[in-house]
Amino acid sequence: MASGRASVYHARTPSMTRQMPSPNNQTNVSSLTRAIQTGSMNVATNTARPRPLSGLRQASMDRGNSLIRNITTSIPPNQRRTSTDANRSRIPSQDRILTTTTTNNARYINAAANESAYDHPERRESNTSNVSGTIAKTSEYDHRPSLTIESRLRSGGLTGLQNLGNTCFMNSVLQCLSNTKPLLLFCFKENLSEYLNTSSTSVMKGVLMREYVTLARKMWTSSDGHAVVSPSSFKNTIGRFAPRFLGYAQQDSQEFLRYLLQGLHEDVNRVQRKPSPMKIDEKVEERMKEKDRARLSWERCLLYDNSDIADIFAGQLKSTLECTHCQYQSTTFDMFWDLSIPIPRTKPSSSVQECVQLFMSKEDLDGNEKPMCARCKQKRRCTKKFSIQKCPNILVLHLKRFSQTRGRTKLSTHIDFPITNFRLDELYDVMSQSYDGPSPTYNLFGISNHSGTAYSGHYIAQCKHPFTNYWHEFNDSSRTT
């Protein structure tokens, strides 16, 4: 069965992983420097708790009667991992530091870019399909920018962001997005107003995108390496879109990123009139080839969510539910914007490849979690399996470091992951069998890191400059290279 509505964020259910001991390890600047030079990174963190999903529209891997359903949920204030600027740490300057992880508590890999695709637009396929609905404008961000723009931006992007009071979570995410090359180039379009969506399908009517673009341009038009910009106006605007970010309470960077991408997407959504409800003939679609069903599902997603932001960050996830009694398989396809990947809890160290494979591994649904089998017409023990059907151009991974069994603690597990040449197709049983697109190679360029405990801490960002390829650490208003 193919779903026709896009869902936004995905995470495996917390019961699939077991608790792990919590060694208290730290990564210093020198080790980070050596990691960059050797081409791999080891991430150590200390305490964690599992968190519910958040997002305006997200997929829940429900452990009840259905495999996937669209829900709206949020993280209760008392369960969010927070930041306290009184706990912020300062890291001394080093040459070529910080490529992929944190001082001592990295939990969120902001993005790994399929850089070869953006460097060679002729290799990239358009996300615009021949589907019905009202489309405002097709994407043009994939055209190579002029050398004038590149040369002008080459000396930019070194600007710090003023901490307005517990806003380090926001600053770290903004720095990561600022160094996301396709998004940055989109912000410097001269005809940007033509892309803005002022229809009823956008809550902010383009205001949030305008404010973000204004901030991004300030951050990239200053050649002063010690410049500091205040994100106050932007913060007020994102607070209008997501009121939870009003005021100066401690917040979670992952949750902020999800809301921000959703808001930016709405503001440039090419769909300016909601399509009429569609009647899906599930029996007919079950007889179609799987890749055709996936393509049809993607086209349905684009009827609702079709923007330059989706072109950059969105991929497609395949979910398969199999009845162990009759072997009937129910398959759905959903749009995803990031993946929340679990950490193995039986070993002191792991790799991001192992975490991704754990997310994609089969999960048994039994007992109270038995779903309803469409063929047996009763609840049966089933297996659930995820796989990648369509790779995003920018892959965002969230390391789940929260432990549910031990309360509000944060896992301290070494996670190794490559800085360059990360390929999903080299992992076992991660790509869908019907996947027929190009196999991208991802290179890490940005991380939002949290140091501290599950109750308080501080966020910083490590980002690779999209034009010079130098790594920089952004700690609110300060920057080190």
How many runs of DSSP E, i.e. beta strands?
21
Rg, nearest Å: 22 Å
Low-confidence stretches: 1-11, 13-33, 42-110, 115-143
Count of runs of 4 or more consecutive helical residues? 12
How far from one another are the termini?
Answer: 50 Å
The helicity comes to: 10-25%
List keywords for this structure.
481 residues; alpha+beta; 8-stranded mixed β-sheet; 12 helices; 21 strands; disordered N terminus
List the helices and strands and how they pair.
Elements: E1 9-11, H1 29-38, E2 40-43, E3 55-60, E4 69-73, E5 108-113, H2 115-119, H3 147-153, E6 160-161, H4 168-178, H5 181-187, H6 207-220, E7 228-229, H7 232-241, H8 253-267, H9 282-286, H10 290-302, H11 308-313, E8 315-323, E9 329-336, E10 338-341, E11 349-351, H12 352-360, E12 363-365, E13 372-373, E14 378-379, E15 382-390, E16 394-399, E17 414-418, E18 443-452, E19 457-464, E20 471-475, E21 478-480
Parallel strand pairs: 1-10, 6-7, 10-16, 11-17
Antiparallel strand pairs: 2-17, 3-4, 5-16, 5-18, 8-9, 8-15, 12-15, 13-14, 18-19, 19-20, 20-21
Helix pairs in contact: 4-8, 6-7
Describe this structure in words.
There is one protein chain. The protein is of the alpha+beta class and 481 residues long. Helix content is 23%, strand content 22%. The chain has 12 helices and 21 strands. It has helices at 29-38, 115-119, 147-153, 168-178, 181-187, 207-220, 232-241, 253-267, 282-286, 290-302, 308-313, 352-360, and strands at residues 9-11, 40-43, 55-60, 69-73, 108-113, 160-161, 228-229, 315-323, 329-336, 338-341, 349-351, 363-365, 372-373, 378-379, 382-390, 394-399, 414-418, 443-452, 457-464, 471-475, 478-480. The strands form 6 sheets. An 8-stranded mixed sheet has the order 1-10-16-5-18-19-20-21. Strands 9-8-15-12 form a 4-stranded antiparallel sheet. A 3-stranded mixed sheet has the order 2-17-11. α4 packs across α8 and α6 (207-220) runs antiparallel to α7 (232-241). The longest helix has 15 residues, at 253-267. The protein starts with 8 loop residues before the first strand and ends with a strand. Residues 1-11, 13-33, 42-110 and 115-143 have low confidence and may be disordered.
